[in-house]
Specification:
- This protein has about 500 residues and is α/β, with parallel strands linked by helices.
- Helix content is about 25%, strand content about 30%.
- The chain has a 10-stranded mixed β-sheet with strand order 7-6-8-23-24-22-21-18-19-20, with helices on both faces.
- α2 runs parallel beside α10 (about 460-470).
- It starts with 18 loop residues before the first helix and ends with a strand.
């Protein structure tokens, strides 16, 4: 029942009124209420309402009735702690990870995998409707029903809707990560390494991570043990003292080659030869040991200087039939099995017959470009990071692909220059960072007028925003397929196909 707080403002001799009282909210801090969870936000928190007031509840699932304690209130919403499951969701399971409640690496282990896939698809649908104001096709009782986001433009309402496919998941959604980045700290027991506790920079020591490749776990564990034995100090964020900041381990799933990168706060590593010889002796699968120097006070993992301490500069892996060289700093998709699924869908949407010219904006080290090049006449890739383009050119050479060209620069600058040189694209593929496409790139795409645009997205909200711009500029979004690249986390990738409207 709503408490009547009107007229209860502070007066002399009384305690100040709570923020909830001042705002006339139905709940206040430390109140306990029973609420129904009606959804889940993009952070994986359950969403419920107490007398119309929104509460976010970490750990609660849609369809559950829960008793919660209010922790914090704001004008429009508040946060609450799950105290008791009054009625559990059929998707609720026991999280298999022993440190799941402490670690912030995963957010959805308490939800069945089928439930996760359904939620991720719905997250994409909700963003298309709410942010993009786009019409989404829905299957309902044997018929096709369409729904339009609030504020849908009238001139768009008679167009066909977007088909959002079921999310493509993994048959075995564990042990999928090929790269482990472990922060190192120190406790009374010595060197520790694991993951940051949820919402903090306190390191939870960890020997096993269920989403990492098993060999990554073993290598990190051995490196920590060797560091302890050699008396290596851990970096302290507060003081800026200590040597070892992170241990980064990479494995090629297809080749089984492994690389260790020691990220250090300074160039000199005490007893470095002993460390290298012990790693080589105890971990014969390792073919490359590198050092990255980062002396800045920052949360960014890598510094600017990387050197090979022993072995090779790169390891290799395959996505499908395409071979890639992966250096210490290379960006490479962390889930190779699902990357092949993602890129396969990209090729399908590109509709390649072997006669097309394709532009790959945000090409990185050329992963999508080279995958597309197996099916296209010519591929042009552009990327603003110089080192990534060097890797992309090396990867093209590694695969004997001479019909791929890469250029350093911003897509919105380089692609218009290509157009001036007479390069016309049949298909433009974009795979931007979480912030989405630069507005000038979207303008460039509309000026280039390719028959198809394939948008690979790691953020449903910026995908929806950018699709709206392209739709308003003469394209129609045909369908979107979510791909689960990161099981048990809230992240969702998706691939969208847009076709140019014919007048």
């Amino acid at each position: 029942m709503k408490k009547n707080r009107k007229g209860s403002g502070p007066h002399r001799g009384s305690k100040p009124a709570s923020s909830a009282a001042l705002l006339d909210l139905p709940v206040a801090k430390n109140d306990e209420v029973v609420i129904d969870i009606i959804g889940m936000n993009h952070d994986g928190e359950g969403v419920g309402r107490a007398e119309g007031y929104t509460l976010f509840v970490p750990g609660a699932l849609p369809g559950e009735k829960v008793r919660v304690r209010v922790l914090k209130t704001k004008k429009q919403y508040g946060y609450a702690k799950l105290m008791e499951l009054v009625q559990a969701s059929s998707d609720r399971i026991a999280a298999p990870c022993p440190i799941y409640d402490q670690c912030g690496g995963c957010q959805l282990q308490h939800m069945s995998y089928a439930g996760q896939l359904a939620w991720k698809r719905q997250l994409v649908v909700d963003n298309l409707e709410r942010i993009g104001k786009l019409r989404v096709v829905r299957e309902a009782a044997g018929a096709v029903e369409t729904r339009v986001g609030d504020g849908q433009d009238a001139d768009h309402s008679d167009q066909e809707g977007i088909l959002v496919r079921p999310a493509l998941g993994m048959s075995e959604p564990w042990r999928y990560r090929n790269k482990s980045q472990v922060p190192i700290g120190v406790t009374e027991g010595g060197l520790v390494g694991g993951f940051y506790a949820r919402g903090s920079h306190r390191i939870v020591d960890m020997e096993t991570c269920l989403i990492q490749h098993e060999q990554n776990d073993e290598v990190v564990s051995r490196v920590k043990a060797i560091g302890r034995k050699l008396g290596i100090t851990a970096y302290n964020e507060e003081t800026g003292q200590g040597l070892l900041r992170h241990v980064v381990v990479k494995i090629g799933f297809a080749t089984k080659e492994m690389m260790i990168v020691l990220v250090t706060n300074g160039e000199r590593i005490p007893r470095v030869n002993e460390w290298i010889s012990t790693i080589r002796e105890e971990l014969p699968v390792v073919v490359s040991i590198c050092q990255n120097v980062n002396t800045r006070k920052t949360n960014v993992i890598f510094g600017d200087v990387t050197r090979v301490l022993w072995g090779r500069e790169v390891i290799h892996d395959y996505i499908g039939d395409v071979k890639f060289a992966i250096s210490a700093r290379s960006f490479y998709q962390v889930n190779p099995a699902q990357t092949e699924v993602l890129y396969g869908k990209t090729v399908e949407y590109a509709g390649l017959t072997g006669e097309e010219t394709v532009i790959d904006a945000y090409c990185g080290i050329g992963t999508i470009s080279l995958f597309l090049a197996q099916h296209a006449k010519k591929v042009y890739g552009v990327e603003i990071v110089k080192e990534a383009i060097e890797d992309a050119r090396a990867n093209a050479e590694l695969n004997g692909m001479t019909h791929v060209e890469f250029e350093v620069g911003a897509s919105e600058d380089v692609i218009p220059r290509w157009k001036e040189q007479g390069i016309e694209a049949d298909v433009i593929v974009v795979d931007p960072p979480r912030k989405g496409c630069d507005p000038r790139l979207l303008e460039t795409i509309l000026e280039m007028k390719p028959e198809r645009v394939v948008y690979v997205s790691c953020n449903p909200s910026t995908l929806a925003r950018d699709l709206r711009v392209l739709e308003d500029g003469g394209y129609r979004t045909v369908e979107v397929t979510p791909v689960d690249m990161f099981p048990h986390t809230v992240h969702v990738e998706s691939v969208a196909l847009l076709q140019r409207k014919t007048i």
